[in-house]
Amino acid sequence: MTSVEWYETANVDDQKSGARKRQLLIGSLFFLTSFFLAQSVVFEAAVPFSVPFWAIIRSKYKEYAKFVLIGGLIGCYFLGFGQVLILALQIGMYECIQRFRYWQLPQSIAVSLAVLIVQVLWQGVMHQGLPPVLVQFYVGCEVALALIMTLFMQVLFVNSYEWFTSHWTYERLGSALVVFAAMLTGMQAVVISYFSLPIFLLQLLICFGASVGSVPLATVIGAVLGALIGVAKLSFTGMLSVATLTGLCAGMGARAGRFGVAIGSILPSVFFLFYDATLPLDSVYFTSIAIGSLVFLVLPKSYSDKVRNKLFPQREEVLLARQHWLTEHVTFKLEHFQHFVHFMKELVFERFMTAPVAVKEEVAPMNTCLSCFRHDRCWGAQNNGMDKLMTDWFHMKGVGKESSIHRVEEQIRYKCVKSTKIFEELETELYRERINGQYFHGKKMIALQLRDMSNHLNQLIAEMKEETISFVSVEKDIIQRLKDAHIECFQLDVLSNKAGARKIVCALAPARVNWEEDTTVAERMILPILYDIFEEPFEIDKVVACDVPFRHIQVSFRSAISFEVEYDIYSMSKDATLYSGDSHALFQLHPGLFAILLSDGMGQSKEAQHESRKLIHLMRECLNFNMNPETAMHTLHYVMSLKQQDDMYATLDFALVDLQHGDLWSWKAGGMSTYILRGKEVLKVESNAAPVGFLSISAVEAEKRKLKAGDVILMHSDGLFSSIADWDEQEEAFLAFAQQVASTNKTIQDKLTTIMQSFQSYYAIEDDCTVLMLEVTHVVPTWAVFKPAQYSMSKSS
């Protein structure tokens, strides 16, 4: 045998030897557990824990079943030979139930059923008939406890491959305490001279729990074990208070270290020794808890650290490692999905995003005309205007005016001898045109939605790659900057780290001199630091004075906006009726973005009002779901164009005001011009897109304008200007009145009222009319106002 072969053989032998030792160690633990569970007697009559333990080990760790069987039978032998026979019969009955091929009962039901059948037969034979009521009660308790213990053990004992990967949840920890309490009950007879094994283990576990989890874990261990042991031993219920208070005092002493835990765990027993003479607090008890405390003191600290990491893994380094893994894993998956979205987007845009062929102004002859004997008269050299009539018919059908459609159809009937077939072909052609338009816009809507999905995924991946634990690192950075500035900050919490919507709470010392206010440090020193870190302005949201646990103030900071909008609305219906075809909505999508919606339905009826309101409602829903405005406009057009039986449509004038950067974004679908008044200058935002619901709409382009403080934005429906007077003259007059009033010191409500009164004194409003007036101003905090005049006066004085 070569040296290499000998080395490999030695390694294999070592591995086999280590596996045997590990199996022997685990088997010994299962043997002791089964031995003590078999001796655990509840209510001084029921022995319900052996069969559940056998069932769990038999199903999950079959190689250790022999250790459990031997330990259980030996433990029952100390209770009597009859108990050994009962346990053997119960295990055999359980195996028969589990192996029955025609039904598969849950494990807990099979265990309780096996215990019930064997106990009923055994007690019936022993009492030669129906057993006494008390015996029946004990049998019922044993069956119920066997069912409950099986459920607890199913939670505690996981599969062997999950031993080192599964986490210790609160449910699993509670199940472990229940099983350990049952074992302690079976250890009551293990007393050597002045040493009691169950009291020693109870004291050791409470001290160890206090070292691992402080007050909560130690108190739970003491309360659970004390309660379960007290229920099992009816004369032992007074020890529940002792065990619970022991856990509480041991946890409170954890702040002083391991000696604090040991001393705190002994004090309650000393107190109850003088308080309650009925408790079994004798020399055996005190010797056992003293030994338990000494053993706890000599245990290596690494044991408690390992258990703490297993039970409470939510520490910063664990979170950091887990977050890194999660970020890499999710980013990998998202990138794959992003490639698919990009492929679909390019596929739709490049291959199918070709605009539909424009309808020719001159209509070609219908098939009926080509086979008609009067073809030359209608379409030849003697053209009698049939092509113009058909073009007018298509146009009137698009506009939806019934009177005009009827007039054109009468003219066609007058000139055509086959008008019925002609109308059928025209309807077919119109239907084909509408289907093509809907098909085109459906494809474009899908393409735009894919683009939005791609943008959302790009943003998500970018945010995940930016900073793994953003709150922790940002808080550390801010605290360090405050320390460098010698600012006493007791606590700092970053509630939100989203750009433009950040929220930070800082606990500071109150003002120490009379002339200083509580917000002075925050205003003069902290706000510049936050601006330097995040590169965006902040403002003080609120200041709260607190006296608990000591006197301090809590200052809340949030991202500030540079501009604010004040608005007013002027709305009236035609002839002062209840129904107006105009609808509007002004709202904030978030503190830095203000949305404006104005829609005008066709006509002044209830249907027109319903159409415009529906359009406003759908647009708000799209914006609330973070849909791109262009995608939302095309989506609404596609949805509304599907309902063409009534030929209803509505205009949509949509604008977004960016209050942080001072930008105006405008999208118009048939809307009127938007005016921006800046002193004597007037900026107009216009669009040629058709109203929502028209099949001819192909694109809604966004217009961007830069806003300044003092700008006045005017938006209106088409009912503002009369159809009788000259349109340009009315527009010039309206803007002239607006410019005269915009620079005054009146409120915006008075300004809009004055503008409309002045305009209506010259031009009458004949239709539904809505005018929106918005005034953009700078946001200036009150503490930042500086009055140089007062300063110079005080300086000179």
Automatic annotation (TrEMBL):
It comes from the Bacteria. One of its GO terms (molecular function) is phosphatase activity. Pfam families: SpoIIE, SpoIIE_N. InterPro entries: Bact_Sigma-Reg, PPM-type-like_dom_sf, PPM-type_phosphatase-like_dom, SpoIIE_N. The chain crosses the membrane at residues 29-55, 67-91, 103-122, 134-157, 177-197, 204-228, 259-277. Residues 564-776 form the PPM-type phosphatase domain. Keywords: Hydrolase, Membrane, Transmembrane, Transmembrane helix. This is Stage II sporulation protein E. It comes from Lysinibacillus mangiferihumi. The keyword Transmembrane helix applies.
